[in-house]
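User: Please work through this fold.
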Amino acid sequence: MKIAGQRSQATRRVLTAAIVGACTMGTGFGAGAGAGAATLNGLRLTVAGGLSNAAPPVEVSVISNLCLHVGDGKTPSPWLGIGPFEASIAGDLNLELRGDYQFHVESAGQFALSVNGTNVLADVSAAGSNGWSAPIRLRKGPNALRATLSRERTEEAFFRVQWKGRGLSPGPVPMTALTVNLDGESESQRDASAAVRRGRDLFLRFRCGKCHVPEQRTAVPEMAMDAPSFEDLGRRRRADWVQRWILDPRSLRPTSTMPRMARGAAANEEARAMAAWLGSLRSTESEPSATGNIGVGRALFETLQCGTCHTAPGAAVESGQLSLSGVRDKFSSVGWLSAYLQKPHTQFAWNPMPDFRLSTAEAGHLAAWMFGDPPPAPSSVGATTGDEVRRGKEWVEARGCLACHNGPGTDQLRAKPVAALPSEWIQGCLSDTPPADSKVPHYALTAAERSDLRAFGRSDRRSLDRHVPSDFARRWTAALRCDECHVKISGIPGLALVGEKLRPDWTHRLLSGGVDEKPRPWIQARMPAFPAYAAGLSEGLAAITGFSTAPTIEPPLDESMAAQGRTLVSAGGFSCVSCHAIGSLGASAVFEAPGVNFIYVAERLRRGYFDRWVRNPQSIDPVTKMPLYFDEDGNSALTDFFGGDGPKTLEALWHYIRQGRKMAPPVQ
């Protein structure tokens, strides 16, 4: 049996703007196909629902696989109200050889699946006693998949489909075998829908809701996004840098979402006054200090893979990267830069800068390297007057700076709520040619970005009152550049299976910075923390693979089975301890690649993924060094244990591993 398009690495779901709302999976989110692509990987998702007294709204998007999760009180799309819905999934399953296959579904809500017009699972009860459908013959080439999921009220609804066949272990359908054909689609309609989606993303990214407030102020997590705090800013930042930043943020950082706050003939005067007030915000605490070695800092830059997002000081700026050449002009001292590197979210909770949990020494070395030798020249801003400081405070309050930035003073800007804005967004922030003396914040938007925001303005803006976890994950795994490590660095797993693989509570803890141990300590790169994003990402990554964040409920530990599992991992069994450590007891004979320490496995992995991995690891990662211990039917080669019964063998292994840090060492 062969699956069309099967590859030896984590597969990449292709995203195209041709269909709106693609939740990309595989090596990450946000990968792009050519705009004219007629086919892309994934499945077409159409959702319909809404108020009973109105025509049901419909959205077309692309999902990565035969899985979907909509939580209780949630909606499958920001464009649909919370309530009853029907989701239709369609695409082709492409095979290189014909064969017989069975399908299995875990679901809540009303679910049905057909292949080539034949009902495979009319509902869950249609499956056999073992949960699997009757075998169905699939042909070589494309096979038409159709599935539906619906709910009657607002309760949780989900489905997760697996398949199996001769030579194919149970598991999700490979993403590269699923395709959507775009032939016959209206290009103008696709582009219009995509523009609305992009516009909503821009509205959230630029924090437009801070001034133009939605009805539900806390519905979407981005409504809580902050900006760097003004508290103590006068000690942390150089005055000349602050003035230049107020005048033109994108001249210092091309990707900045900060608008120009001073324009026209008096721009320099206004920027200097605002910088003067910000510079007056100083506490009486002692200045942080730091010492470091430039050479060690340069080496840390390489070891920590900082170059995936940043260009080193003095180096040519590469596309998509942020140069570190201006860092020494921004921070007032090496000590303040070192303090920032250690805790980048102290003054900016939603800072996209990762927290690598650097030690004081590591941060000092990196700061010394970025500052270089000799240190920067003193600030070029001269002494300021009390009148300048007073006027600067007034301008900061009047321009709406305090809508995003925390600090003393009161936000005086009064903008219309988003629902009260006109349907055509052509004035104010979105004016093509704002007057030079306009006091409206001026965003450095491209013509395409203004067009997308205007398209969103003409849409149902109530989408800002609806949070879809998978949509949040799509936005932020792209914006945080997760693929830069999870695709490009050898040994770091891709994002395709995160929701199916990892327990969401552990994912949340990891992203919050609460996991002290490294599951793979032999990899020099570190998994950083993004505390403000942790809850949304852990929920969204689970939802994309059809799971909720509900806690895993395990049956009571079976000590008898755990004892059998202990023997199974020992030299007299599968000899797992040859490659896997157990607590402080190291692996006995690692020839090529070590495995994850067993004491961390149960707290990290979902049980279903554990079973699938142990039964046939190559079906998940074809280049893994993990041996194959089970045959095609899922039976173990060790017939001394349960007569080779596969499920019982896996159960014994899991009960042993569930003991975590309390598990006994292997049998000698």
The first helix runs from residue 187 to 205. Confidence is low (pLDDT under 50) at residues 5-36, 125-129. DSSP finds 20 helices and 15 strands in the chain.
